[in-house]
Amino acid sequence: MTVLLEDPELVPNVPQPPSPGLLWQVWEEFHQAVAKSMPRTSQVTWSGVDDLVHAWRDRPHLYSLPLHVVRHAEAAMLAMIPSLRDDIADSAFRWLALDPDPGRFADWAVGLAERCVTEDIGADPAIELLGAMGSPEARAALERLSVKPGGPASWENAEAAQSTLFDLGNEGTSL
To answer: What is the rounded CA–CA span in Å between residue 81 and residue 68?
Structure first.
C-alpha cells in the first residue's frame, strides 16, 4: 500500500477534491436550482432534492464542473434539509411568541409545538411558545414533554419543558 501511495505511476486515477471556490460556485448554482424548482419550503424534501440532483447531473453544464463536485453538492443539500426545517420552525415559533396573546393559537399551535419538540425541530422556541401561551392545553403538552426518562422528548428538551413549567408555576408569586 505504501509503495502504491508513494509512486505516482502506480496510484489509481483518483479525482482530486474540489477547491473550496469551485464547491461554493456549485453550491450557489444548486441553491438557485432548488429555489426555482421548490419555491415553498414545504416542497424541499429528500425525494425532491434527489430528483433535482438526478436531473442536474444529466443537464449540460454552462462551464466545466467535475461530476464529483455535483455529488458533494447533493450530500450537502441532503444534510441541509434538517437544518432548514429547524430554522423555519425556530423562526415561526419565535414569531408566534411575539404576539401579545399567543394563547389564541392554542387550537393548532399546541399540537404542532409538541410534535416539533418530540422530533427536535425548533424545540427551544416551541417550548418557549408553549410557556408563553400558558393555556391548559399548553401546560398539558409541557407536562407530557417533561417526562424523563423514557418520555417523548429528548433529555434536554424534557429539562427545558420542566424549567418552563417551573417558571409558569412561580408566576405571580413574590419572594
So the answer is: 20
- Output the CA torsion 81→145→134→85 (10° steps): 0
User: Per-residue pLDDT tens for 1-48?
Assistant: 455 455 566 555 545 555 666 666 766 777 777 778 877 767 777 777
Can you tell me whether residue 97 is helix, strand or coil? helix
Q: 127, 141 in Cβ contact below 8 A?
A: no
Q: How far is CA 128 from the centre of its chain?
A: 18
Burial group, residue 93, by CB count within 10 angstroms (0-12, 13-18, 19+): buried
Contact 168, 160 (CB under 8 A): no
* Best CA proximity match to 30, nearest among 77, 79, 98: 77
Tell me if 82 sits within 8 A of 122, measured CB to CB.
no
Read off the pTM. 0.59
Instruction: For the chain, list residues with pLDDT below 50.
Output: 1, 4, 14, 172-175
pLDDT at position 106: 79
Question: What distance in Å separates the CA atoms of residue 24 and residue 114, rounded to the nearest whole number?
Answer: 37
In this structure, what C-alpha cell is assigned to residue 108? 393548532
